Amino acid sequence: MSLLTLNGVCVRRGRRELLSDASLQVEEQDLVVIRAGRRSGKSTLLQVAAGLIEPDAGSIRFAGFPSVDEARGRSDGLALVRTEFSRAMGSTILDQVAHPRTAFVSPRRAEEEAFALLRRVDGVKLAGEPGRGQTLDHGERMRVGIARALMCRPRLLLVDEPTVGLNGEERDDIVALLRSLAREDGIAVLATTDSVSGFGRWRHLTLEDGVVHGPGPQAPARVVPFPGEQRR
């Protein structure tokens, strides 16, 4: 049984079709990257998977059950990485990371778990930074967002453009971190990108005209080139 299954998903905004018959599967501990251009619908696809957007057609199942909203998805073990920060979640980055657990454990315990996860993503030095994240660059915001999502103890992590704007070394570090989550923590990752550089050992899909293309879960990983891209 697949961990996440999207089948024939369609999302429309007026006359524009953001997703058209989009289908994919993600297995336990899978590493999947979807390559697509700007305004292609890749962010919409992750939001549908996370339960933030209800599709106009098609179905979403997570761990064998319909994932109908974000709360249901999170309780089943699905988390979307967010790099936005809210004043309501606390005055420091440590507070922001701890926030998802404060409803379930004591504030002190939540802070201890948050600190451990910041250490896991190599972000301990960011713990005392202002909670609105205005002092962080994209790579740092991504590390904090990953730590905060891990507070939900996910089986699947959804990450929208984790490497956008990063140089080669920063990009490789973030991709290595995500890969280690599957290898060491058993967490599957579904990411989007406009460039697959650095994602060499992942299963590669593309999103074009609202449809997902690429190998299924059992097929050998390969890069599906964009139209017009030269094969090497």
UniProtKB/TrEMBL annotation:
TM regions (residue ranges): none
Protein name: ATP-binding cassette domain-containing protein
Residue span of region Disordered: 213-232
Keyword terms of this UniProt record: ATP-binding, Nucleotide-binding
Stretches assigned to the ABC transporter domain: 4-232
Pfam families reported for this sequence: ABC_tran (PF00005)
Domain of life, source organism: Bacteria
Keyword ATP-binding: yes
Record's keyword annotation contains Nucleotide-binding: yes
Leader sequence residues: none
One MF term in the entry's GO annotations: ATP binding
Family: Belongs to the ABC transporter superfamily.
Lineage per the UniProt record: Bacteria, Bacillati, Actinomycetota, Thermoleophilia, Solirubrobacterales
